[in-house]
Amino acid sequence: MSNFSIKKLNKPFDITIDNIASDKSISHRCAMFSLFSNKTSYIENYLLAEDTLNSLNIVRLLGAQIKQNGSSIEITPPKELKEPAQILDCGNAGTAMRLFCGLLSTLDGSFVLSGDKYLNNRTMNRVVVPLRDIGAKIDGRENGNKAPLFIRGEKNLKPFTYISPIDSAQVKSALILAALRASEVCKYKESELTRDHTERMLKGMGAEIFTDSEGFININPLKGYLEPLNLRVPTDPSSGFFFAVAAAISKNSRVVIKNVSLNPTRVEAYNILKKMGAVVNFIEKENIYEPIGDIEVIGDELNAITVENHISWLIDELPALAIAMSLAKGKSKVKNAKELRVKESDRIKAVVDNLKLCGISYTEFEDGYEIIGGNFKSAKIDSFGDHRIAMSFAIAGLVCDMEIEDVECINASFPNFKEILDSLYI
Description:
The chain is globular. Helix content is 29%, strand content 24%. The model has no long low-confidence stretch (mean pLDDT 94). The strands form 6 sheets. A 4-stranded mixed β-sheet has the order 2-15-17-16. Strands 4-5-3-14 form a 4-stranded mixed β-sheet, with no helix packed on it. The chain has a 4-stranded mixed β-sheet with strand order 6-7-9-8. The protein has 13 helices and 23 strands.
């Protein structure tokens, strides 16, 4: 276990960042979706972090040929996906494990998905149960609720009409991937639009996916192969958000984050910062698979806010938003966010336990928390093995000294985070 210390930053900063980690969600999907084509996919700026490299290795173990030149990746799928002779390691990535459940459920063969000690303690029923309902054969610890998961692929999954009880892009994506090889049209409905990278990317590859007048996503089974991917992975807005918060909590500080996905389901947290009082500008530059551009954030006095809508658009950024809320004037509240309990850690508990160590007043609820703005005091923070908790409280360290314990998890999603953080002091 390794730690690092953050020292208080005593001056405003003005920085343009063009080396934020590539988007993790899109990188995972690039590796997986390439398997639906019979031609080589070309991907630039693939995220070279532990979790996404694990996904790339799983695709290799399934028979794909992979050529890599730095972050430029070529993936040539095999004529027929093969049954691997070893465990498929997802590392710390819930996205990988849950999406691969949907994809592998439709393939001939047997597969074992596992991960690190944190991932193997996360619940998988939200994906396993609906997949079983349409004929998937999945087992594991606690009757398939926890990994390692054993999957025996089944080619002829039943068509389905599924109204999801939870708004989760991972559940939606797993069911869409299974539906692509079902015997008839499948329908999926969520109460609130979640991240839609899966639909956008698959439609860009030629999949017949559309949303009808009743709000159901209709997924037509594949008639053959999809077109290969040819894209440059944009900067991850969730990773960039840590530095957006860094600017927002330091009056007159400015950051420009380059080449970011401006997908509306990914930038809601920036809109929340804007409502709190920070200056936030979006500059769109292109729109092929995804809208992409730059985001500028300038710090100013922050005011409290209640966050209760579009929670699925904010789920990864809420820990960092908690840092901004802790320094805002007034009483902020997060509601309807019970999903935080089942992320890489119980993020509600992780946030409030660490806020307590920092001298911030709070009230914990089952589905969120209330935070009274104040001043951070120096503390030693437990990351709970969760990269977003570690990085959020590292940003808090800019206003006071902070020590973060167990920071290896950061390498799973943002290997150069500390390097960029250190550049603020120059």
